Structure formats: C-alpha cells, structure tokens
Amino acid sequence: MTGQSASPDAAAPARIAAAALSLLDEDGPGALSFRTVAARLGVAHATVQRRCGDLAGLLDLCADQLAAELPGIPPGSDWASATEARFCGLYAALTARPGLLALRGGRPWLGPELLAKLVEPQLAQSVAAGMTPAQAMVVYRQLYLLTLGSATFVDHRDPGAAVALTRTALAALDPADFPVLTGHIAALLPATVDHEVYYDALRKLIHAAEPCGGGGGPRPPRGGGGAGGAPRPEGGWGGCFRRGARAALRPAPVDHVVYYAALRKHPPGGAPSGGVCRPGRLGCAVRQGLPALRR
After folding, report:
1. Torsion sign, CA atoms 127, 133, 135, 139
2. What is the pLDDT of residues 90-107, one digit of tens each?
3. What is the CATH number of the domain that holds 31?
4. Does one domain contain both 143 and 254?
5. DSSP the chain
6. At a CB cut-off of 8 Å and minimum separation 6, what does 59 contact?
7. d(Cα 97, Cα 95) in Å, to the nearest integer?
8. Which candidate, 1, 35, 109, 294, has a CA 20 to 30 Å from the CA of 141?
9. Contacts of 277 (CB under 8 A, 6+ apart)
C-alpha cells in the first residue's frame, strides 16, 4: 500500500531517481514502473507520474542522477588528463548501470547535471586549449560515442556470462567459413570484456586530438617523456590536430564525419593499420579507484 501522507520530499526528483536506479540494479529493466518506484518511496504512483510525465522522463531523471556521480576535475589539470578523467568517470558510471543503458537505448543524454558536469567543462577546456567550438564539439562527440558504445554492448557486471555467450556463438560457426573465429576462440574471448580495450582506445583518441600546449598545467612525465619512452613532440601529442583529420572536422554534432574522423585517428608514431601504438600511463584516478574495472 502506498503512503498517501508521505512527506512531499519523499517524491523529490533525486529520491525518485535513486529509487528507480536501485530497482534497475536489483531487479533489472523489467522491474521498473511508476508503481514499483512509488511502492519503494511509500507514495502514490500518480505522484511519481506527475513528477516524471512518462517513462522517458523517469529515465531522464535517472540519467541525471548518474551524472551527479561523475568526478570533479582538479583546477589546473591539463587538457589530456582532464579529458581522460572525465570520460573514465562516465564509463565507470555507465558500466555500473546496464539496466539504465538498456532502457534508454538511443535517447540522448542531455540532462542539466550531465551538461554541467561533463559537456560544458569539456567543451570550455577544449576551446581554452585552442580548439574552435566546432572542433571541440567533434572531439567531444568522438569520445562520448566511444564511451557510450563500449559501455552499452556488454553487461560488464557479469563478464562471465558475456564470455560464455560469445563462446557459444563462435563454437556454432562452421570452421570452413570462419577459420579465424573458430580456430582462436580462447585468444579472442578476453577482449570482449576487457576494460583495457576501452581505456586504450580512449587514450589513442585523446592523443590524436590533443591541441597545442595541452590547455592547462604541465603533464607528468611518461617514462622519458612520451609513449614507449619516445620524446614527446613539441606542443602536445596531437600537435594542433593531425593534418588530414583537421580538414574533416565539421560543426554538426550528428555528422557522420565525426565517426569517420575518429575511425581514422591514431597517435603520432603509430600507424593507421598494422602499427603498434604504445600509449603512456593511464593516469586516471577514477579508474584507479574502481577495483571492479581492473578484473
């Protein structure tokens, strides 16, 4: 029975979001409804519905509650380190909430908390580091799409199940048609759930896009100055955006060029195909504080 005399604060947006996220974590996407959230809060389900409007509104509240958990960035952080920390934090928050990701699908994440904690400071620091607003938006979109996609397509809270599902699918293939997939199953499976796949891709995108000067304080040395001990190029790893990628940048946040530019990017010293890139240390305090992500 719902509590009709509950305090008005019981149905405050933050409490609704917390209750909904708790339901998603404990019972999965199928358990979420206005009635189940209201029962957890001890209020009438109509109260919750009035606050949210519809299921999309409830999911927006949840997304913004998630954004409130993103890390703060220390003042004076250089562009690359701050960018890495922001997106590592977003990745950690998203991988911890697979139920929310499943329900939101392709809905944009545009709540005020996310805009304030991630989008605005990232764009502001990119512009301050020398990018145009259009360039800053393209780089943001590349990093955001990498992060969202990496978090969405595997339930990282149950890596064993993801590996088992992939193994079953590969084992059912005909070796004559799929010699690599069927002949190297044991070697291929770890990458499906390895968080380092995301972190390595994130570092490569950041290094490829880093503007001149880094836009902040000095970066810590990386084993002799650069990736793999190589001297760091003057003006930052990206050297005022890589030639070729810069010409592809466009102001539209939904432009397919955003994806194609990200696909082609690689850090200086690496190769677009066949080369081995050795990025420097991750240096992400957020990741270092998440033991579950180091499995």
Report:
1. positive
2. 999 888 888 888 887 777
3. 1.10.10
4. yes
5. ---TT--GGGG-HHHHHHHHHHHHHHH-GGG--HHHHHHHHTS-HHHHHHHHSSHHHHHHHHHHHHHTTSPP--TT--HHHHHHHHHHHHHHHHHT-HHHHHHHTT-----HHHIIIIIHHHHHHHHHTT--HHHHHHHHHHHHHHHHHHHHSS-TT-HHHHHHHHHHHHHTS-TTT-HHHHHSHHHHGGGGT-HHHHHHHHHHHHHHHPPTTTTSSPPPP-SSSSGGGPPPPTT-TTSSS-TTHHHH--S-TT-HHHHHHHHH---TTS-SSS----------HHHHT-GGGG-
6. 100, 103, 104, 107
7. 5
8. 294
9. 204, 227, 266, 267, 269, 270, 271
Instruction: Look up residue 79 and give its two tokens.
Output: 């562009």
Q: Quick: pLDDT tens for 184-210.
A: 999 999 888 888 999 999 999 999 998
For 222, the token pair is 């990386």
**The model scores a pTM over 0.85:** no
Please state, in angstroms and as integers, the Cα–Cα distance from residue 11 to each residue in 23, 28, 53, 102, 103, following that order.
15, 22, 13, 24, 22
Calpha distance 11→9 (Å, rounded): 5
Same domain, 41 and 82: no
Q: Which residues contact 105 (CB under 8 A, 6 or more apart)?
A: none
Same-domain pairing of 5 and 88: no
Q: Which residues contact 196 (CB under 8 A, 6 or more apart)?
A: none
> Residue for token digits 């519809």?
54
